[in-house]
């Protein structure tokens, strides 16, 4: 099955909407070091910055935090260290995306588990399509992430802005194993 052309379009719209604002940065013209270290999963730099009590929830122009950047890229250990240092688990960006939504949409199951343990809201819906973590994972065929979200009581009845549920998306995308998971009681 071919990937939907809608996702790259949505991502480019989100990115372009943020390009007109300056990044939060240090005294140089470079983006904040903590944001870069988290995005790259650079644990040495991350540890050094955390030891200096860097602002854990600094944001870029899109309002992404270091935790969001680490979660999006599947940097499990960076996510763990940020959470242990007190990073807020449930902040959102301009589009209503949280670290949990970013991790679930990219099948970073271990990161999803860490965020759920830290108290991230499992049923948050982003504001571009109304998708929850479960809808994202089901639509994209991320079986292990769907299983984990169901184990943590993600609401299966949530509907996106088109009135579709995780089950209807999984069925439409041909993810039969996920359809079976979502259909079983």
Automatic annotation (TrEMBL):
Domain of life from the UniProt record: Bacteria
Pfam families assigned: Ank_2 (PF12796)
Keywords (A to Z) from UniProt: ANK repeat, Repeat
Residue spans of the ANK repeats: 29-61, 65-94, 95-127, 129-161
SUPFAM superfamilies for this protein: Ankyrin repeat
Parts of the chain that traverse the membrane: none
Gene3D superfamilies: Ankyrin repeat-containing domain
InterPro entries, alphabetized: Ankyrin_rpt, Ankyrin_rpt-contain_sf, Dendritic_Spine_Reg/Scaffold
PROSITE patterns: ANK_REP_REGION, ANK_REPEAT, PROKAR_LIPOPROTEIN
Annotated PANTHER family: PROTEIN VAPYRIN, ROLLING PEBBLES, ISOFORM B
Name this protein carries in UniProt: Ankyrin repeat-containing protein
Lineage of the species this protein comes from: Bacteria, Pseudomonadati, Pseudomonadota, Gammaproteobacteria, sulfur-oxidizing symbionts
């Amino acid at each position: 099955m071919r990937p939907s052309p809608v996702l790259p379009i949505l991502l480019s719209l989100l990115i372009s909407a943020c390009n007109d604002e300056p990044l939060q940065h240090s005294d140089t013209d470079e983006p904040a070091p903590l944001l870069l270290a988290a995005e790259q999963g650079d644990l040495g730099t991350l540890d050094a910055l955390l030891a200096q009590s860097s602002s854990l929830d600094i944001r870029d122009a899109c309002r992404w935090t270091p935790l969001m950047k680490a979660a999006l890229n599947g940097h499990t250990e960076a996510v763990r260290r940020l959470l242990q240092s007190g990073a807020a688990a449930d902040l959102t960006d301009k589009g209503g995306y949280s670290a949990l939504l970013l991790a679930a949409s990219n099948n970073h199951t271990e990161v999803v588990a860490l965020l759920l343990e830290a108290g991230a809201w499992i049923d948050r819906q982003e504001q571009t399509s109304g998708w929850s973590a479960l809808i994202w994972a089901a639509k994209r065929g991320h079986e292990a992430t769907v299983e984990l979200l169901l184990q943590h009581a993600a609401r299966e009845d949530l509907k996106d802005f088109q009135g579709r549920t995780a089950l209807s998306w999984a069925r439409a995308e041909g993810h039969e194993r996920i359809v079976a998971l979502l259909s079983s009681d």
